[in-house]
């Protein structure tokens, strides 16, 4: 009874935190990919005749994910504390 009530009242704040975190991680990933696509090694890989799929997954994805994974803890910490403060105030 009591536990179910706790979970019921936790649903909305947890959903708000998850949506906020998802948006930030998506933005971080998008910007990382766009930065990597413009680099010289991508142009070189395309000039060598590699398929677009091979260029994106073999080169761009691998290097972009390094930046995302390295920046993720700092981003999540900031998002978590800012988001939880905002949710608690509201």
Automatic annotation (TrEMBL):
Database matches in Pfam families: BPD_transp_1
Transmembrane segments: 6-29, 64-87
Gene Ontology BP annotations: microcin transport; transmembrane transport
Superkingdom field: Bacteria
Cellular component terms (Gene Ontology): plasma membrane
Keywords associated with the record: Cell membrane, Membrane, Transmembrane, Transmembrane helix, Transport
Keyword Transmembrane included in the entry's annotation: yes
Protein name per Swiss-Prot or TrEMBL: Microcin ABC transporter permease
């Amino acid at each position: 009874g009591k536990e179910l009530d706790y979970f019921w009242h936790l649903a909305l704040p947890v959903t708000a935190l998850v949506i906020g975190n998802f948006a930030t991680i998506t933005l971080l990933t998008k910007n990382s990919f766009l930065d990597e696509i413009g680099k010289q090694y991508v142009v070189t890989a395309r000039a060598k005749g590699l398929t677009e799929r091979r260029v994106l997954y073999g080169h761009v994805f691998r290097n972009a994910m390094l930046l995302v994974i390295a920046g993720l803890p700092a981003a999540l910490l900031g998002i978590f504390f800012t988001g939880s403060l905002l949710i608690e105030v509201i």
